[in-house]
TrEMBL record:
It is an enzyme of class 1 (oxidoreductase). Residues 15-407 form the Catalase core domain. InterPro entries: Catalase, Catalase_AS, Catalase_clade1/3, Catalase_core, Catalase_immune_responsive, Catalase_sf. Pfam families: Catalase, Catalase-rel. This is Catalase. Its EC number is 1.11.1.6. One of its GO terms (molecular function) is metal ion binding. Residues 13-29 have a biased composition (Polar residues). It comes from Aerophototrophica crusticola. Gene3D superfamilies: Catalase core domain. The keyword Magnesium does not apply. It comes from the Bacteria.
């Protein structure tokens, strides 16, 4: 690729598919900086729904995967407290009850037959078939992600996928995207270390990544994150160890999981939650809804809620693994959405992808169907193979009706009502100090083996990048930690002083500085003074 100076490159204006110029491709429309996204996010909806349909028949992301059946057994407690203090979700409050689960593990970027030694986050998607319907918890092995706003997701995946010309994953594409998103530095530090290649699915963590809410019988809510800690402990691979395995077997993790279950060595994880009050937490340097940040475990400890055991392999891989379909919007009573902008976007995208990939009746498939028969007024569509049964009058496929159709369920004694108020607009978080701080802290917690592998991987990547990208990445890493930046510069053959002299990215706050916020923040009533200021 011929390199050109940044200021000499001529680019066309980004537009929608209808030709409308795009003035902000970084932020969903939301009610205030921290408020919920709105359904009229047309630019995002057009972008994400087209992205969801880019490939057929394999998944756009998480194409390479395997899975197994098992159960979740609740402790009935969250830490030392009764689980009912936080949630009315029966799956978490009923001690000793075993809920059937199916877990699908996966890599993210590679195609269906790509190697399982790839340096990549690992999907950890768990389907709970509870007495109150299906609950899907769709996450990764790492507790964070590359971006914090779902409107960026198609661009991120495009940059990480193979080049449309060379059909290869080119390092310059990855780092060209990352260098414009300091929020990604934390995830890059994890993925480019041995944590980017788990040794097996049985020896890796799982995490919801996104922030949810737990809601109790009194209609009170707390923010929460879910995680899964493997009973066997965590084990990862260096690049050299992964290369040695890949030379012999591109599906080593699938084989390891299948063989362990067949011999009765059932994998087990302890499921935990972190909780915090449902507010902005100004005492933190990051927004707790920002999924590029970890909640410090010394302040928000991992509280055990139950255990997950896998004890049965699929009897048909296609029917049970390939056709398994997950969605972040599939929740049960007592577990609710937060205003996490990645979660809000994923909730549309994931189920939309499944309707396209598997079909509008994918929920009729046994692997995806709830334990109890579903009773809806939805009908027909491609590949429908039964009509929801149990109705008193099959003629009535609408509600309400006086002719014996379906009726609404009773509502909770106290519903959860979130107060939402703010100015509709496009917002980026103003709390960006930890974009660099948490990445630096992670670098300093790595042992020598992890740090050496991280530096070697980054150095090799950046040597394959144009000079301006390599220099900017060194600038970023140096602001995370001076030793981090110095060692990456040496490994990449970049002059450290030249990199350090670069100015901050246009439109981005300098590391450690507060970002540029909106005129007002959510939670403020509009007054004449506010309107005057806006005008």
């Amino acid at each position: 690729m011929a390199e050109q100076p940044l200021d000499s490159r001529k680019t066309e204006t980004l537009t929608t598919r209808q030709g409308h110029p795009v003035s902000d491709n970084q932020s969903l429309r939301s009610v205030g900086e921290r408020g919920p996204a709105t359904l009229e996010n047309y630019q995002f909806i057009e972008k994400i729904t087209h992205f969801d349909r880019e490939r057929i028949p394999e998944r756009v992301v998480h194409a390479r995967g395997t899975g197994a059946h098992g159960y979740f057994e609740a402790y009935g407690r969250i830490g030392d407290e009764p689980a009912s203090k936080y949630t009315r979700a029966k799956v978490l409050t009923k001690a000793g009850v075993r809920t059937p689960v199916f877990i699908r593990f996966s890599t993210v970027i590679g195609a269906k037959d790509s190697p399982e030694t790839a340096r990549d986050p690992r999907g950890f998607a768990i389907k709970f078939k509870t007495e109150d319907g299906v609950w899907d918890l769709v996450g990764n092995n790492l507790k964070i992600f590359f971006i914090r706003d779902a409107i960026k997701f198609p661009d991120m995946i495009h940059a990480f996928k193979p080049d449309p010309v060379t059909n290869r994953q080119e390092p310059w594409r990855f780092y060209d995207f990352v260098m414009h998103h300091p929020e990604s530095l934390h995830m890059v530090t994890w993925v480019k270390s041995p944590w980017g290649i788990p040794a097996s699915y049985r020896q890796m963590e799982g995490s919801s990544v996104n922030t949810y809410k737990l809601v109790n019988d009194q209609g009170e809510a707390v923010l929460c994150k879910f995680s899964f800690q493997p009973k066997l402990g965590v084990r990862n691979l260096t690049s050299q160890e992964a290369a040695e395995i890949q030379a012999q077997d591109v599906g080593h993790a699938t084989k390891d999981l299948y063989d362990a279950i067949e011999r009765g060595d059932f994998p087990e994880w302890e499921m935990c939650v972190q909780v915090m009050s449902d507010d902005a937490h100004p005492e933190l340097d990051f927004d707790p809804l920002d999924d590029t940040k970890r909640w410090p475990e010394d302040k928000f400890p991992l509280l055990p809620v139950g255990r997950v055991v896998l004890d049965k392999n699929p009897s048909n891989f296609f029917a049970e693994v390939e056709q398994s379909a997950f969605g972040t919007g599939v929740l049960v009573e007592g577990i609710d959405f937060s205003d996490d902008k990645m979660l809000q976007g994923r909730t549309l995208s994931y189920s939309d992808t499944q309707r396209y990939r598997v079909g509008p009746n994918y929920l009729q498939l046994p692997i995806n169907a709830p334990l109890k028969p579903a009773h809806t007024n939805q009908r027909d569509g491609q590949m429908a193979f039964y009509v929801d049964d149990g109705q008193r009058n099959a003629h009535v496929n609408y509600e309400p009706s006086s002719m014996g159709g379906l009726s609404e369920a009773g509502r909770p004694a106290k519903e959860y009502h979130q107060w939402v108020e703010g100015h509709l607009g496009r917002y980026q978080t103003t709390r960006t100090a930890d974009d660099y701080r948490q990445a630096g802290e992670r670098y300093r917690t790595f042992d020598d083996r992890e740090r050496e592998d991280l530096i070697a991987n980054l150095g090799a990547d950046l040597r394959a990048c144009p000079e301006h990208i390599a220099q900017r990445m060194v600038w970023h890493f140096w602001h995370c930690d001076e030793d981090y930046g110095r060692r990456v510069a040496e490994a990449a053959g970049v002059d450290l002083e030249t990199a350090k002299a670069l100015p901050p990215l246009p439109g981005k706050p300098a590391p450690g500085e507060k970002g540029q916020g909106p005129t007002y923040t959510s939670g403020k009533r509009e007054t004449p003074e506010h309107r005057d200021a806006a005008e």
